[in-house]
Design brief:
The protein is 49% helix and 16% strand. Helix 2 (44-83) packs antiparallel against helix 5 (141-165), helix 3 (90-117) runs antiparallel to helix 4 and helix 11 packs antiparallel against helix 21 (610-644). It starts with 16 loop residues before the first helix and ends in an 8-residue tail after the last helix. Mean pLDDT is 81; it is low at 1-5 and 7-51.
Length: 677
């Protein structure tokens, strides 16, 4: 049964739009068929089978015109060269070749006319149209049909290659189930996912995908998060933790309270980001597009010159001979290989990255990462877990330790820093009866408030210096992160807090070194802690005790050397540095909407090892793109010269156009098979 589009009350189309958007933004709109991408109201297994059948039938339909044209062409060539029947002459022969030309030629001519109506006169369709019609006018019927036939076959393969490049994105689109099971009066009920309201409870069976973001109500549950992070290792969640649409429940039946609307889920934002990625073109891609707009009209002018100018210089000038050379020149010059394979290469890179849990906001950032010479990184949450634990409390005996800790805990509850969480875990629940007044956060220093009419300061040693609090401790003698406390203008003491280095941090630095990338760590944390972590990992440069503006200045110093910089952080607190760097990379995109908004590249899990992987994907993508450019220009230049000199026929022209395009496409598709470790 033919699929019918579904619209909402405002007339917005609800189906078949995401895939079409991807195709269009990938620059492949001209070669996309109109096959719809969804079925309605059927079981998943049946729907998958139907989609496979539709896929097979659509491929046959795509090749059918070429098959008909090929059969008619082969029969005509057999008549011309072997059988030679008396009736196969004059108008009969011409009509036969026209009929052979029609299945593959008319669609291209139609596209040429539509392009001209849109103001794009010198399109590839126009070039192929005048080349093949010209071949017919000088009696080269077999070659005219053959050129268009091979061109059409090339177009079909291009279509299939583009579809293959979308596989990773389409697999993401399939991660959101259309239906979910909710509990109403403790009874399970299957409903459409988009109709589920915030606050409703989803019952998730083992093996089922979660349809909306929510909070886990069950005590514990393990999830497969590979669709979101590219990580196949199960992720165990505890009661109260956030679980996201697209995660697959791996064990017993679990219950999830919906916290986000269907259209606002994290997966929806990720899908939108990936779909929009190709709208930001890489410089190479933009150059090729501009080049093609100039190149094609120039080629047409040169073809006219090849046909007409020899009349004034050649004694035995034959119009048909020079027209044939001009037509060969036109076929060779068609920029298909560049126009298709380059966007396809970049899209393959974006798709390969998304499969590994790395989201690029544009193909321009693939190019930028490929040229990165410096990776500047934050410490907390990037190279370390960002999960702090209190190690030691050293307070002066003059003060009541329990009372001061309660005040510190109350003040730190106003901060979102991981240190606040560590203190709360150590002290316990916040005492809301403590009368905090005039709470103020001092950037890069700490917190200040008034308690019982006395000033309470909690932060680093710079905070103590700022308020002229004297202390008899050497800050450099303490390796761990230190939280100092002052009350009533007296130094109370300090709390030491330790963070743990991520298990793949060492591998990350080693791989960055193998890519000849210099590493720098910038942190607001204590210098001794930052240098300790940097020395342990082998990071080239490390700077601690930095304010946000200090980080900006350090990055400016690197950029002053005319070197490219990528900054890796949480994408929120370090917004000025992210804006200044050539590429801003945010860690843990699943945890924060702001990271997706701020950064150029989002690593969906917290693994720093994805940083060198992202750089490698950029390098491999750029390598393939330039291979295709060199192949296309090299072959075309040689055959163009031969064609202008009359040494190349239409058959060489077909190879220079369709053959090179197919080779370039096959090379571009290679990136989808690569393993990035």
């Amino acid at each position: 049964m033919k699929h019918k589009h579904i619209y909402d009350a405002q007339g917005k189309q609800l189906c078949c739009t995401q895939e079409e958007k991807i195709y269009t933004q990938a620059g492949a709109g001209q070669i996309v068929d109109d096959t719809c991408c969804s079925t309605d109201g059927e079981a998943n297994q049946k729907g998958n089978t139907q989609r496979e059948e539709v896929g097979r039938s659509s491929i046959i339909k795509m090749f059918l015109p070429s098959i008909i044209s090929l059969v008619l062409l082969l029969v005509a060539i057999y008549f011309d060269n072997v059988l030679k029947p008396e009736w196969f002459t004059d108008w009969v022969r011409i009509i036969w070749y026209v009929v052979a030309y029609a299945p593959v030629g008319f669609p291209v001519l139609k596209e040429a006319v539509e392009s001209i109506r849109k103001g794009e006169i010198f399109s590839e369709f126009f070039l192929m149209g005048i080349a093949t019609i010209g071949a017919f006018t000088i009696g080269e019927y077999p070659e005219g049909v053959a050129v268009m036939l091979f061109y059409s076959v090339g177009e079909v393969f291009q279509t299939l290659a583009v579809k293959r490049a979308k596989t990773n994105i389409k697999s993401l689109l399939d991660q959101r189930p259309d239906e979910v099971t909710i509990l109403q009066d403790n009874q399970p009920k299957v409903v459409k996912a988009e109709t589920v309201a915030i606050g409703e409870i989803i019952q998730l069976k083992s093996g089922e995908k979660l349809g909306l973001d929510g909070e886990l109500l069950s005590e514990k549950a393990s999830f497969n998060t590979s669709a979101l992070t590219g990580e196949s290792k199960p992720d165990t969640k505890s009661k109260g933790e956030t679980v996201l649409a697209g995660m697959i429940n791996l064990n017993t039946v679990s219950q999830v309270k919906v916290t986000t609307a269907y259209t606002d889920s994290k997966l929806s934002k990720i899908l939108e980001l990936v779909q929009n990625a190709t709208s930001q073109k890489a410089p190479t891609e933009l150059f090729i597009r501009k080049f093609a707009k100039i190149y094609t009209p120039v080629v047409v002018v040169l073809a006219v010159a090849i046909c007409l100018l020899p009349y004034f210089f050649v004694t035995d000038y034959q119009f048909s001979d020079w027209l044939y050379r001009a037509l060969v020149f036109l076929v060779i010059s068609c920029p298909c290989a560049l126009v298709i394979s380059i966007p396809l290469g970049y899209f393959g890179g974006i798709g390969g990255a998304s499969k590994n849990g790395i989201l690029f906001k544009g193909s321009n950032f693939l190019d930028a990462l490929a040229n990165i010479q410096n990776v500047v990184m934050d410490k907390t949450g990037t190279m370390t877990e960002g999960v702090f634990n209190v190690q030691e409390v050293v307070f002066d005996k003059e003060f009541n330790q329990a009372e001061i800790l309660q005040m510190v805990n109350a003040l730190e509850s106003h901060s979102t820093h991981p240190v606040a969480t560590a203190i709360q875990q150590y002290v316990g629940a916040v005492n809301n009866n403590i009368p905090l007044q005039n709470v103020e956060e001092i950037a890069g220093h700490g917190l200040k408030a008034n308690v019982n009419g006395k000033e309470l300061l909690v932060g680093n040693f710079k905070l103590m210096d700022k308020f002229s609090i004297t202390y008899d401790i050497d800050p450099n003698s303490i390796v761990y992160t230190v939280i100092t406390v002052a009350y009533d203008n007296k130094f109370v003491g300090y709390i030491t807090i330790a963070d743990t280095i991520k298990e793949d941090a060492q591998t990350t630095i080693d791989k960055l070194k193998s890519l000849h990338v210099k590493t720098t760590m910038l942190s607001g944390d204590k210098s001794t802690v930052v240098k300790f972590v940097a020395e342990k990992l082998g990071i080239n440069y490390a700077f601690g005790d930095l304010l946000p503006e200090d980080k900006v200045n350090k990055v400016k110093e690197i950029k002053a050397k005319n070197e490219n910089v990528a900054f890796v952080g949480d994408g929120v607190n370090d917004a000025p540095v992210v804006a200044l760097s050539d590429v801003g990379i945010a860690m843990g995109g699943l945890g924060s909407d702001a990271t997706i908004e701020t950064a150029d590249v989002v690593i969906q899990d917290d693994k720093p090892s994805k940083i060198p992987m992202a750089i490698n994907i950029g390098k491999q993508t750029k390598k393939i793109v330039w291979q295709n450019i060199a192949l296309a220009f090299g072959v075309k230049a040689v055959v163009l010269i031969l064609g202008a000199g009359g040494l190349a026929t239409m058959w060489e022209a077909v190879f220079a156009d369709v053959g090179v395009a197919l080779l370039a496409i096959l090379n571009a598709v290679r990136i989808q098979r690569m393993k990035f470790n």
